[in-house]
Amino acid sequence: MDVSPIEQGASAPAFELPGVDGEEHALDEFDAPAFVVVFTCNHCPVAQAYEDRLIALQADYDDADVVAINPNETENYPDDSFEKMVERAEEKGFNFPYLRDESQDVAAAYGAECTPHAFVFDEDRILVYQGAIDDDRDGGNVSEQYVRGAIDAILNGEDFEHETVSPMGCSIKWRESAAA
Questions:
Q1: DSSP character at residue 95
Q2: What is the pLDDT of residues 145-158, one digit of tens each?
Q3: What is the set of domains in the chain, with CATH numbers?
Q4: Chain Cα centroid distance, residue 11
């Protein structure tokens, strides 16, 4: 499926998705001044490499809400099934909602390209940054933390003047019907 990420200054597309906690989660329930949506999954090694960094991100910021969304089709990627998502969240101790986008409508609305792909919004849910989480897919030599920089700018009332850095990871696994 050919998608393009929403552009800086766009409003966060609304969503209501089931979480691994058994609850439905919607955009309007998150009220922190900074809001981070990360499209991710279970099967991608790059997404897996970012899991601990996402846990740390949520732990480090009281004034930011992090939400992870898995949009992948599961016929060819059974590790991304809802049941496996529940297992993964429990195993890793996710401290943020992990949501299932079975229809893939939310991923398409945001223009998610790969896992992980981050979108950072301000208090008015206006996009400040989208792209890579940081500059090291493996996590051993991170020198630039784009998502943290965007959150810090939002919380300090500053503009985040950073160009989009292409996200790196596995492509979103679209269903054939979504590609039509």
A1: -
A2: 999 999 999 999 99
A3: 16-179 (3.40.30.10)
A4: 16
Rounded-to-integer distance, Cα 29 and Cα 51, Å: 23
Distances (CA, A) of 125 to 8, 22, 59, 152: 11, 25, 21, 15
Q: Which residues contact 155 (CB under 8 A, 6 or more apart)?
A: 33, 34, 61, 63, 64
Q: Global pTM?
A: 0.96
- Element of type H or E holding 86: helix 82-92
Q: Quickly tell me which residue has 């009281």 as its tokens.
A: 62
DSSP secondary structure of 116-166: SEEEEE-TT-BEEEEE-SSS-SSSSS----HHHHHHHHHHTT---------
Q: How far apart are CA 3 and CA 168, in angstroms?
A: 16
Burial 153-166 (b: 16+ CB within 10 A, else e): bbbeeeebeeeebe
In whole angstroms, how far apart are CA 164 and each of 11, 119, 132, 167?
17, 10, 8, 9
Model confidence pLDDT, tens digit, residues 83-107: 999 999 999 999 999 999 999 999 9
